[in-house]
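Input record, target 12 of the design panel.
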């Protein structure tokens, strides 16, 4: 009798050991994934639901692997610690590796890049078109003047308020969260760069630096010319000359601009027409990048007061109106 009980106990121990060995092997074996897979773990869902989903996709097989994973997660206390989100499963991922991803919340990230020189309207259009971003600001794009209050970021005009760079996020992030991050990034950048302002630069505030940077951004075709262009504008302001820059006029025309600026456009007065009004326009005209901000507060020294595009992205800089007019005839009127 004792021998029979002992034999039964031994068989039980061996069975448990075999089961434990099988569980260990299954949980540590690579899942049958030949190419990268994306799995969505919905908020409010359970590990059991995810296991069933993966089994339905033939990712978590055989069936006992799902049972082992469920038991392991419960014993370890992970079953209630899983983070919702989208997860990337690469070839070689194991069941335990999947569980670690879910506990760590190591979700799949997407990126959104704000381009230097975009207007706020172009930024909003790109955000709404991104399939991983949740749009929450209504059926129509908010007007630029109304955007900052809608984001609870104050009453300032929204143009120029978002820093061009790449932002990473998980699927389902709202446009509000990305805009808020970009605004705070711009605020920090302007504060840091304003502290580097050259003494002779005729800008009275960080906001004026942002306005100037937006003009430099729009006028610059080659990055190497940013500081030269900023220098021309700084000298014109110091001499009480009008800036006479086409991008500000175009911004004042707004959505009706058809791509061709005409003489009558330069004569039509708007708050942004720097041919008819002195000083800076009332707001930025685009989203300037860090390089344009740095050029605005630390422009290149020189004597040039004019510049004209060669048509290849570069410019001819001139000290006198006569030299400038000659460059216009050579590079603009002749080309037309």
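The sequence produced for target 12 reads:
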């Amino acid at each position: 009798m004792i021998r029979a009980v002992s034999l039964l106990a031994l068989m039980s121990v061996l069975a448990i050991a075999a089961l434990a060995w099988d569980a260990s092997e299954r949980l540590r074996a690579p899942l049958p994934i030949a190419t990268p897979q994306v799995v969505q773990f919905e908020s409010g869902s359970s590990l059991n639901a995810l296991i069933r989903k993966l089994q339905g996709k033939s990712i978590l097989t055989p069936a006992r692997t799902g049972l082992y994973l469920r038991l392991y997660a419960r014993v370890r206390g992970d079953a209630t610690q899983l983070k919702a989100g989208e997860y990337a499963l690469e070839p070689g991922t194991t069941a335990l590796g999947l569980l670690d991803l879910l506990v760590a919340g190591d979700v799949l990230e997407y990126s959104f890049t704000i381009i230097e020189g975009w207007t706020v309207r172009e930024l909003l259009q790109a955000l709404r078109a991104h399939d991983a971003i949740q749009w929450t600001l209504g059926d129509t794009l908010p007007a630029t003047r109304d955007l900052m209050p809608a984001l609870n970021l104050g009453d300032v005009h929204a143009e120029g308020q978002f820093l061009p760079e790449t932002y990473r996020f998980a699927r389902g992030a709202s446009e509000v969260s990305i805009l808020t991050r970009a605004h705070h990034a711009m605020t920090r950048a302007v504060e840091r760069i304003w502290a580097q302002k050259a003494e002779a630069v005729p800008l009275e505030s960080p906001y004026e630096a942002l306005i100037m940077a937006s003009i430099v951004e729009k006028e610059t075709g080659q990055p190497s010319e940013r500081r030269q262009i900023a220098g021309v504008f700084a000298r014109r302001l110091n001499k009480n000359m009008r800036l006479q820059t086409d991008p500000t006029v175009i911004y004042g025309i707004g959505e009706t601009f058809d791509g061709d600026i005409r003489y009558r456009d330069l004569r039509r007065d708007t708050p942004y027409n720097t041919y008819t009004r002195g000083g800076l326009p009332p707001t930025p005209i685009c989203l300037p990048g860090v390089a344009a901000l740095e050029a605005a507060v630390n422009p290149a020294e020189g004597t040039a007061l004019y510049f004209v595009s060669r048509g290849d992205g570069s410019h001819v800089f001139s000290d006198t109106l006569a030299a400038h007019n000659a460059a216009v005839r050579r590079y603009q009127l002749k080309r037309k």
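The longest strand covers residues 37-41.
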